[in-house]
Write a structure and sequence with these properties.
Elements (H helix, E strand, L loop, with lengths): L1 E5 L2 E5 L5 E11 L6 E7 L19 E6 L2 E6 L12 E3 L4 H12 L3 E2 L4 H8 L6 E5 L7 E5 L15 H18 L3 E2 L2
Antiparallel strand pairs: 1-2, 2-3, 3-4, 4-6, 5-6, 7-10, 8-11, 9-10
The structure holds zinc ion.
């Protein structure tokens, strides 16, 4: 089974190769691997997505939920690290909540009075590694993708010591946090 968003429709191809198109109510696509993250679509009869196997070990690719007015598919492979794609998704409905959850988790010693600067910067894609994921249908919900590789440069052990690399990691982080308008807690 595959699911793909084409324009304002979701196209599901089931195991028997049947192509099922339904109008989307909202939809989010992973900017890194292109998989559908979450799709909510209108349907009179639930679409049977059947037993599916994703490209990762025995894990289902989607969870299917019957919801008012339709059906929702939610990617299972993006819920944790280690799936097909290592972009970590924050699922809250507002980008502000996602950014604040990200900050609490990854920079607990930092604080931010207002996320206005950060939101503007993330929306403008000025902070590599923090990616806004808007609704393809244009709704207000915006998810957040976090690529920690962009926040943690690889250690080039031939040209720098471990301490130098640590410093570089710290610098990269501080640079990005300044871009986000986040300050150290004093
Ligand atoms: Zn992905």
């Amino acid at each position: 089974m595959t699911a793909e968003i084409l324009g304002r429709e979701i196209v599901i191809v089931d195991r028997r190769g049947r192509r099922i198109c339904r109008p989307l109510l909202s939809g989010f696509v992973c900017p890194k691997c292109g998989e559908v993250l979450k799709a909510y679509f209108k349907t009179d009869e639930p679409v049977d997505i059947g037993q599916q196997e994703s490209r990762t070990y025995g894990q289902e690719q989607f969870r299917s939920l019957i919801v008012t007015g339709g059906q929702a598919l939610i990617s299972e492979t993006h819920r944790e690290y280690g799936g097909l794609c290592d972009l970590k998704i924050y699922w809250a409905p507002s980008l502000r909540h996602n950014l604040s959850a990200w900050l609490r988790k990854h920079q607990p010693d930092r604080s931010c009075d207002t996320y206005d600067v950060g939101l503007t910067q993330v929306m403008a894609q000025r902070v590599p590694g923090l990616v806004p994921i808007p609704d393809v249908i244009g709704g207000d919900v915006c998810l957040l993708g976090f690529d920690d590789q962009a926040w943690c440069p690889a250690w080039d052990h031939r040209s720098e010591s471990y301490e130098e690399w640590n410093e570089r990691v710290e610098e990269t982080k501080n640079e990005k946090l300044t871009q986000l308008g986040v300050v150290s807690e004093t």
